[in-house]
Amino acid sequence: MGAALLEIGAVARELGISPSTLRTWERRYRIVLPERGAHGERLYSSDQVQILRRVLALTRTGLRARAAHSAAVGPQPLRSARVELAASADASQLARRAVDEVLGQSVSEKFAFYVRLVATELVQNAVLYGSDREPIEIELKAFSDWVDLRVGNAGKRLTLKSLRSRRRQGGRGLEIVDALAEAWSIDTGPFGTQIAVRVPKEPD
Amino acid sequence: MDPANSQTDFGISLADLGNGVWWLTVKGEADLSNAPELKERLSVAIDSGARGVLVDLMDATFIDSTTLGVLVGAVKRLRPAGGELAIACDDPNIRKIFEITLLDRTFNVVDGAEAGIAYLSLQS
């Protein structure tokens, strides 16, 4: 994160494949979804180039692109969902129902509660500090031992520093998310803020 | 309303038990969307001279950091006048939120409404 991003031509040259192959992989199999620059150009992170390198190596052993991608990126979610919510006060309740939908009856009530709580805090943050004209996007991926949550919103950029200073002002949301989630990341760019967390089934 | 969602339907009721003790019960999911209502009902009790407020979460299924903020705000108003706020809650998941934020040290969190009322009656 924060490292230089590569344009599609540079990535294609580095991997020895054509840019159109990269675009096809993205469109058909969703293999690596690059960020977009100010003019809509694809921008690849070094992590993404790494994944592409592994996918390419696997396809050369005879795997098809989709299978190579699964093998290259590791475990795939058991269930997932992507929802867009209007940035209003009831967004966090709708986020909890999306969590219930994805988790179903397959997990303990305690774990489901923790995921609902983390989703609520992240969405609430987006409602309070993001743009109220753009929807909040939530992505939920349930794996066998954890849930990955990504909440994105347009509007003002958020940084970990500004979140922490809000905690000092009395907000306890971050403290709660910190206690229940691992693998925090915050990405801010021209299109807004994305917060990604992983909630493990057995938090420390 | 879909009956399947009945456990998430939010509701608050407020009762004056006398001797400055008030009993506020929260039902369903408390969050940002109903925090203003919670704040307003707590203010009714405090403005009426409450010395002890029991926030009964026995029928609550969810609370979040906004709810906690409202409760802390209420305690800040009660304390200078020697007032107290107690929480009745036996849901381990909700109790965990008070523990994570160390607010179990700010509020007396008890297992049931009777214990909370008894505690507050002794204080006031």
Describe this structure in words.
The complex is a heterodimer of chains A (204) and B (124). With 204 residues, chain A is α+β, with helices and mostly antiparallel strands. Chain A folds into two domains: 6-73, Multidrug-efflux Transporter Regulator, Chain: A, Domain 2 (Orthogonal Bundle), CATH 1.10.1660.10; 79-200, Heat Shock Protein 90 (2-Layer Sandwich). Chain A contains eight helices and eight strands. In chain A, strands 4-5-6-8-7 form a five-stranded antiparallel sheet, covered by helices on one side. Chain A has a three-stranded antiparallel sheet with strand order 1-3-2. In chain A, helix 3 (46-60) crosses helix 4 (65-73) and helix 5 runs antiparallel to helix 6 (109-129). Chain A is globular. The two termini of chain A are 26 Å apart. The mean pLDDT of chain A is 86. In chain B, strands 1-2-3-4-5 form a five-stranded mixed sheet, with helices on both faces. Chain B is built from four helices and five strands. Chain B starts with 10 loop residues before the first strand and ends with a helix. Chain B has helices at 35-47, 65-78, 92-100, 113-123; strands spanning 11-18, 21-29, 52-62, 84-88, 108-110. Chain B has a single domain (12-123), classed as STAS domain (Transcription Regulator spoIIAA). By secondary structure, chain B is an alpha/beta fold. In chain B, helix 1 links the parallel strand 2 and strand 3 (52-62). The A-B interface holds A 89-90, 92-93, 96, 109-110, 113-114, 116-117, 120-121, 124, 127-128, 170-173, 175-176, 179-180 and B 8, 29, 31-33, 62, 64-66, 68-69, 72, 92-93, 97, 100-101, 103.
